[in-house]
Specification:
The complex is a heterodimer. Chain A contains twelve helices and no strands. Chain A is mainly α. Chain B is α+β, with helices and mostly antiparallel strands. Chain B has a four-stranded antiparallel β-sheet, with helices on one face. The chains are: A mainly alpha, B alpha+beta. The A-B interface holds A 15, 18-19, 22-23, 26-27, 29-31, 132, 136-137, 139-142, 144-145, 147-149, 151-152, 156, 241, 247-248, 252, 262-263, 266-267, 274, 277-278, 281-282, 285-286, 289 and B 214, 217-219, 221-223, 225-226, 229-230, 232, 302, 306, 309-310, 313-314, 316, 326, 329-330, 333, 336-337, 343, 347, 350-351, 354-355, 358-359, 362.
């Protein structure tokens, strides 16, 4: 197991390298630069700025400089948020995004899993149709519709919760963003659990349990293990994207996470910020894919890690 | 799909597709979705011609009017509208009487009224050309008969005074076109790539799928945004690019199918007869992978439409005066408190379409699943 994990981690390094290379050059091919303002800067000022940020060097030289810095764990200074380095921005934003994402993920698992199981046990019944309808709604209604509606209902009409803001991570402030983030995940998890559960309930070992006259709860617990497999493999990428923040939710609720950074960075040609975000997200994706594979082997004895 | 109506007597055996069609037609949710989708497409294609408003026509007098089944201008708004125009003509209105399609009024002023200024009635969106019925006191007192222009804004208007119904339908055209375009690109690349990898197998397959794996672990949404920045808001190019990214799942699905198909007897027979690799791929492998592909396509279209609305929400999507459901929803979400109809109608259209596509996809999957027979 340990050697497997180590080998996967080593294999992740070339992938990361490819990702960094592609994004670096793609970003630079795009027209425009970080210091293009509406009123162009004086030529001398521009020249100095470019020299300070080493943009005057040949592109390949810059690429090598960036790689070397990255190896030391240095993401470089931000071009747009002038007083911050990328490391500082992430140190502030990443914990916020991760907390929201993790809470949303747990909420989604706690609600979506049981809902899906319920639907599977009552296949083609009213409860099943209700869950499918809810799940389809959760997948199809975009979160930028859900968020303002929640704000209007709970923030303004009922005035139970604040409309936005982070307020140092107070519980009241994080309820609406977490619910907005969790709704589509609840929907997907419920759907996947239902499909996997229906499949598992037809399996021989479950039929044996039924024949032995065991209670529905026991059967459900046994079936849950088999049904968890597809859900787990979905959760890997989902967790990676949730933990690295959502642009929409962070913009609408005014949350200081890192979800907004990529769009802002790409629009302002903040090269280091974009690269930093890409690297962080890619690391999350790779880590969670590994985690999924390990969990898979733990859940399903037929899977061997080689 | 095979043509069953050509057979006068139903054959005893049924092909996969006939079977699937029968099972799909039995699924009420899927059939309803199909009908909704057809209606939605027709509405978006033909509707903008019938609403009577061009999608980019600005009605300055009807900014943010709420949705209403009755016609504009409203009777209670008429005196104020007349007052405004009269002020520009530099006269005082009196004896305002609305009679059906016309309004009678008397304009008085201390000095003779410049009749050229009456063109302000014409210029407004509410009235037609005024007719002078009486001219008293050397032009200081004019009796006018002004026709009222009746307009219908069934969905209200947006913050620029454009008809929301027309815009929603035009937006539907754009959103559906984008969904189909990007899915088409993904379909072509994914099927060709996946079928080739799966059929050829061995080392070629390994290398081809390894490339897919690497592309898979790229933070994909970021690349879409980069492409948008790169291609500069040209939405056709942009969605060709989206399609070019969304083909990965398709390639995996098709490859899985192709792996099992290449061991089938009919493929071996074709190989033995000396059919070329391209010929086998076109004639045998690709047609037999279509089942899961069709299912995936119906689920990919809503995904792309959602992606487009997400990009539009970020301001990276379709640019004014063109519009898409995502743009409309984003505008509506920003003004939800004052003008809720600007969010409700486009969101309802988008969600209905996505719902139908999802139910249709689920129905197709159930219909094509051989295990459920």
């Amino acid at each position: 197991m340990l050697t497997y994990i180590l080998r996967r981690l080593t294999a992740a390094i070339p992938t990361l390298f490819v990702i960094v290379t592609i994004s670096f050059f793609l970003m630079r091919v795009a027209p425009g630069g970080p210091f293009d303002l509406e009123q162009p800067l004086e030529a001398k000022v521009m020249e100095n700025l470019r020299r300070i940020y080493k943009l005057d060097q040949p592109l390949f030289q810059q690429y090598l400089t960036y790689l070397a810095a990255l190896l030391r764990g240095d993401f470089g200074p931000s071009f747009y948020f002038r007083d911050f380095s990328i490391g500082e921005l992430f140190a502030q934003g990443l914990p916020v995004s991760m907390r929201l994402g993790a809470s949303a993920l747990l909420l989604a698992l706690a609600i979506g899993g049981p809902l899906g199981a319920l639907a599977a046990f009552r296949q083609n019944g009213t409860a099943d149709h209700a869950v499918i309808g809810f799940a389809t709604a959760g997948i199809t209604i975009p979160n930028f519709v859900v968020a303002p509606v929640l704000q209007i209902v709970f923030g303004l009409t009922l005035a139970w919760l604040p409309v936005g803001g982070w307020n140092g991570g107070a519980f009241r402030n994080s309820v609406l963003p977490i619910v907005t983030l969790a709704l589509p995940q609840i929907a997907v998890i419920a759907r996947m659990t239902r499909a996997a559960m229906i499949e598992t309930l037809r399996a021989n070992h479950i039929r044996t349990l039924r024949a032995q006259g065991l209670s529905t709860t026991t059967i459900a617990l046994h079936a849950a293990r088999g049904a968890a497999l597809p859900v787990v493999s979905y959760l890997g990428p989902a967790a990676a994207s949730l933990l690295t923040g959502s642009v929409v939710v962070e913009t609408i609720f005014g949350i200081p996470g890192i979800g907004r950074y990529f769009v802002e960075g790409a629009l302002n040609r903040d090269y280091t910020l974009v690269m930093g975000t890409v690297v962080v997200v890619a690391i999350f994706v790779l880590l969670f894919n590994l985690l999924v594979d390990v969990l898979y082997a733990l859940l399903d004895p037929r899977v061997r890690l080689e | 799909m095979s043509d069953t109506s050509a057979c006068p007597t139903p054959p005893i055996g049924r092909s996969l597709w006939q079977d699937a069609r029968i099972r799909l037609l039995r699924n009420r949710a899927a059939v309803a979705s199909l009908i909704v989708l057809v209606l939605m497409t027709l509405a978006c294609l033909i509707g903008p011609l019938l609403t009577g408003h061009p999608y980019d026509r600005v009605y300055q007098d009807y900014v943010r009017v709420p949705a209403s089944l009755s016609s504009y201008p409203k009777a209670e708004a008429l005196p104020a509208a007349v007052q405004r125009i009269a002020a520009r003509v530099r006269a005082t209105p009196s004896e305002i009487v609305a009679q059906g399609d016309r309004i009678r009024l008397v304009l008085t002023a201390p000095r003779p009224i410049d009749q050229r200024l009456l063109v302000y009635f014409d210029r407004s969106d509410q009235f037609g050309t005024p007719v002078i019925t009486a001219n008293e006191q050397e032009g200081r007192r004019l009796s006018l008969e002004v026709p009222i222009k009746r307009q219908y804004f069934l969905f209200g208007t947006d913050s620029n005074g454009r008809d929301l119904l027309t815009r929603t339908l035009i937006a539907g055209r754009v959103s559906l076109a984008i969904g189909l375009l990007a899915t088409g690109v993904a379909l072509v690349i994914g099927v060709a790539y996946g079928a080739t990898a799966g059929y050829l197998g061995g080392r070629i397959d390994m290398v081809m799928m390894r490339i897919v794996d690497v592309l898979y672990s790229l933070p994909f949404i970021f690349f879409v945004i980069l492409l948008v920045v790169f291609f500069g808001r040209n939405f056709i190019l942009m969605f060709l690019a989206v399609g070019a990214i969304e083909w990965l799942d398709m390639a995996r699905i098709v490859r899985g199918q192709a792996l099992s198909i290449r061991r089938q007897d009919y493929v071996l027979a074709a190989e033995a007869l000396g059919v070329s690799t391209g010929g086998i791929l076109r004639r045998h492998v690709i047609p037999n992978t279509l089942g899961p592909v069709v299912v995936y396509v119906t689920l990919l279209v809503p995904k792309v439409i959602l992606l487009e609305s997400f990009l539009s929400f970020l301001g990276l999507g379709v640019q004014e005066p063109m519009t898409s459901w995502g743009v409309l929803i984003s505008d509506g979400a920003h003004a939800i408190q004052a003008t809720p109809w600007m969010l409700i109608f486009p969101a309802a259209f988008l969600v209905t379409t996505l719902f139908s596509l999802n139910f249709l996809g689920d129905g197709l999957r159930d219909a094509l699943d051989p295990r459920d027979r």
